[in-house]
Amino acid sequence: MKPVFALIDCDNFFVSCERLFRPDLASQPVVVLSSNDGCVVSRSREAKELGIPMGAPAFKYRELFKTHGVVRFSANFELYGDISERITRTLTKITPRTEVYSVDEAFLDLSELALPNYDAWGRAVRQHLFREVGIPVAIGIAPTKTLAKLATEHTKQKADSAEVLDLARASVGTRDRYLARTPVKDIWGIGWRLAPRLRAEGIHSALDLSRVPPRFAQQLMGIHGRQLVAELNGTCCHRLEPFGKIRQTIMHGRQFGEDTNNPSVVEAAIASLTARAASRLRRENLLARHATVHLKTNRHKPGYQRIGRSISFATPTADAGLITSQLLKALGSSHKLWYHRADVLLYDLVSEHGLQTDLLGHLDLAAAAASQSRLRAFDAINQRYGQRTIHYAAEDLSAAWQPKRAHSSPRYTTNWEELPTIYAKKIEIKSLRKRCSSATFTNYL
Asked: Which of 253, 255, 252, 256 is nearest to 398 (CA)?
């Protein structure tokens, strides 16, 4: 059976999530800023038309924001993650053959669906997602993932709202026209580093690359290049990733609100980041065999330094308290520099259901089972009574490391204290009673 993929790509996802609860901003320029409100990471169509580039430093565009009334939001990743999960749940009802590629993108395998018209199907899915979740999406349909990604990018370049582009049943001539209009730097998997080398070889568009002999493509880019040429010509080289595939790493990191050398601030940051990473481990029923912490100074200041420490666990774990204490012990007295950022990485992950004893007997299965039971109770309490109902005391040592979020929106969907408030006006119905008979009035109610 010939493969057919659909790529669902949310339109300006972070901005769309903010507009979901602020419909008054539907036609206004809106941007979402990165950690510490530093750079633009998402732009509405109106903001793009003002010439605001992706990654623009916010301080350089302060006057433009003011002149054109650009609405700014601090990144609200908790809200965006929850909306992303809602979209994923909706898509898996359409087909379980789904691969979540990123927070705002997902591939669907349509090869087993008897669809007479992919374009009509795509439009129906767009309407369904907008009705159920409220997020506009672009949909590209093609026989390979690379072509589906290319098709989606072309739909987002239209002057109107994102639509659907079907390259699966398009003629060769139609497909070639879209390939010719795609610069080589915009091809999925090329990037800014590889593009100059290809342009030096006279390859300026996706159509040019599709006509490169496979052997020469492999000489330029390795096996990845050979596969890329095949995908552009409609031959599938990248299948859907298994939905239940165990991830290899989980990382959480943050840039501090201000540089610090205070041990309590650094310890609170590491404890908080580890707690989030371990919570994600447990949600996916995983355990980590190794963990690493990195502390970095500001790379834009003289004397940039990066300190890293790694630890291993005889028994794989998802216990944030244990991981934090071991990481802090490994760091020792490394709090002599003014740190700008911390990252916590958990890796060499295994399923908690497949834990096996080792040959030398270092693995204590009874202790591992007791730890997992305790952590399940920990998560159950927080799920029932709200996040951070119980948490590790080290997380409260200081809040000075928290990134600046001067334009933060409420966490509308995940925090009871930040639910939207609706005010209903009292309706005066006395005059209505005078004009209606009792029977009519009863029917009206």
From this structure: 256
Measured between alpha carbons, how far is 159 from 252 in angstroms, rounded to an integer?
37
Tokens, residue 71: 């609405």
Under DSSP, is residue 14 helix (H, G, I), strand (E, B) or coil? helix
At 173 the pLDDT is 93
Amino acid symbol at 139: I
Q: Which of 240, 241, 242, 9 is nearest to 109 (CA)?
A: 240
Supply φ then ψ for residue 151, to 5 degrees: -65, -40
Helices (H), 72-117: 77-94
pLDDT, tens digit (0-9, with 9 covering 90-100), for 60-99? 999 999 999 999 999 999 999 999 999 999 999 988 899 9
Residues 137, 162 contacting (CB under 8 angstroms): yes
Instruction: Pick out the chain residues at pLDDT < 70.
Output: 158-162, 242-245, 334-335, 354-362, 426-445
d(CA 98, CA 245): 12
| Token pair belonging to 179 | 């390939």
What distance in Å separates the CA atoms of residue 294 and residue 311, rounded to the nearest whole number? 12
Closest CA to 229 of 198, 202, 208: 208
Distance CA 16, CA 161 (A): 12
- Backbone phi, psi, residue 145, to 5°: -65, -40
Please list the residues that pair with 42 across neighbouring strands: 32
Q: Is 136 exposed, middle or buried (0-12, 13-18, 19+ CB in 10 A)?
A: middle
State residue 29's pLDDT score: 96
Q: Which two tokens stand for residue 301?
A: 């200041």
DSSP letters for 424-444: -PPPP-HHHHHHS-HHHHHHH
Q: What is the pLDDT of residue 55?
A: 92
> What pLDDT is attached to residue 103?
92
The distance of Cα 348 from the centroid of its chain, to the nearest Å, equals 22
Phi and psi angles of residue 218, each rounded to the nearest 5 degrees, phi first = -70, -35
